[in-house]
Design goal:
- The chain is of the alpha/beta class.
- It contains 9 helices and 9 strands.
- The strands form 2 sheets. The protein has a 5-stranded mixed sheet with strand order 1-4-5-3-2.
- Strand 2 and strand 3 form a beta hairpin.
- It is elongated, with a radius of gyration of 23 Å.
- The two termini are 22 Å apart.
- The N terminus is likely disordered.
Length: 288
C-alpha cells in the first residue's frame, strides 16, 4: 500500500477516522483499561452508545483482539451491534506499550465501531487513513517514539501511485519530535514506466530537505534488483554528507570491498543510462 497517493476524483465517502480521534502519548496499566479508554472515545465521537464498551471487553476476553505487530483492534461482540450509531474508528498510541494477553505488547490500539460486518473492509482502509499528511505531521511532530517511516514514492504497490508534489514537500519539511527520526525513501521503481507518453514525475526530495533545513532527514536508495534479477543488482544510496559518513563507517566493518565483477557486468551490459532505459522498455512490453 502507498502511504500517500495522488488521489483521483471520486465520490466523497464518509470520513470514518478523523484527526481529533487520534490520541498520542497514552498510558494504561492494563488492556481492559485501554479498551475502556478507546471505547469512551468512540462514545464521545458519536459512533457508539456506552453499553458497546462492555461488548468490546467481552470480545477481547473471549478471543483476543491482539493481531500482532504491536497492534490491537478492540471491537464489540455481535450482541452489542445495536449500540452502534455509525461506522467509525479511533486510535490511541501507547509509546511505552501495554501488556496484552500472554506476553504480547501493544502500542497501537484501534477502536472499531461498525454497523455491519465491516471490520475487514475497515482494516484494509486504516493504512490509507493514517497516511493522510495532516495525521502524519501530527504524530511525527509530537511522539518521540516514532523513529522513522518507509516510503516507496513512485509506482508504489499495490496500486502503482506516485506521491504528489505536495506530499513530497510536506515530508521534506517534517519537524519530528525524535532527533533521530529518518525517512527511508525506497525509489525502487524509478524507471518502471509502462508507457513512454505517460510517465509519472517525482520531485527530488533530498534538495527539498536541504531547503527545509532537514539535510539529514532522508536516506534515498535504489537498486537494479527489479531491473535485472532480484539479489543480483547493484544498490545505491543518497543522503547528506553526515549520513553517508556514518554509513561508510558501518560498511568498512561489514565488507572488505565491493563486488567489482558485478559492477563490470552492469557496465558491459547496459553501458549507460540509455541502455537501462532501453532494457526497461522491454519490461514494459511484457507487462502490457
Amino acid at each position: 500500500m502507498a502511504l500517500f497517493k495522488r488521489r483521483k476524483k471520486e465520490e466523497k465517502k464518509p470520513q470514518i477516522l478523523k484527526l481529533e480521534n487520534i490520541r498520542i502519548g497514552q498510558h494504561a496499566k492494563t488492556s481492559d483499561e485501554a479498551i475502556c479508554s478507546i471505547g469512551q472515545l468512540l462514545v464521545e465521537a458519536g459512533y457508539v452508545e456506552a453499553p458497546y464498551i462492555q461488548g468490546m471487553l467481552n470480545r477481547d476476553h473471549n478471543l483476543s483482539v491482539y493481531i500482532g505487530n504491536d497492534i490491537a483492534i478492540p471491537h464489540g461482540e455481535y450482541e452489542v451491534k445495536d449500540y452502534v450509531k455509525k461506522t467509525g474508528l479511533a486510535v490511541d498510541i501507547y509509546p511505552e506499550g501495554i501488556t496484552w494477553g500472554e506476553g504480547n505488547t501493544v502500542r497501537i490500539v484501534i477502536g472499531i465501531a461498525a454497523t455491519t460486518d465491516e471490520h475487514v473492509t475497515i482494516l484494509q482502509n486504516i493504512a490509507e487513513k493514517l497516511g493522510d499528511m495532516d495525521m502524519v505531521e501530527k504524530l511525527v511532530s509530537a511522539d518521540e517514539s516514532i523513529k522513522g517511516m518507509w516510503c516507496v514514492p513512485k509506482y508504489s504497490n499495490p496500486q502503482g501511485y506516485t506521491y504528489s508534489e505536495d506530499t513530497v514537500k510536506r515530508l521534506a519539511a517534517l519537524k519530528p519530535a525524535a532527533k533521530d527520526f529518518r525517512i527511508y525513501w525506497d525509489n525502487a521503481y524509478a524507471m518502471h514506466h509502462l508507457y513512454e507518453d505517460r510517465q509519472d514525475e517525482l520531485l527530488e526530495i533530498l534538495g527539498l530537505c536541504e531547503e527545509a533545513g532537514n539535510p539529514d532527514l532522508v536516506y534515498e536508495f535504489c537498486s537494479t534488483s527489479k531491473i535485472i534479477f532480484a539479489g543480483a543488482g547493484l544498490g545505491a544510496v543518497g543522503s547528506s554528507k553526515a549520513n553517508l559518513d556514518e554509513i561508510r563507517k558501518s560498511l568498512s566493518i561489514m565488507t572488505i570491498g565491493y563486488d567489482k565483477i558485478n559492477q563490470l557486468r552492469h557496465v558491459r551490459y547496459f553501458k549507460d543510462i540509455d541502455g537501462v532505459a532501453r532494457h526497461m522498455k522491454k519490461h514494459a512490453v511484457q507487462m502490457r
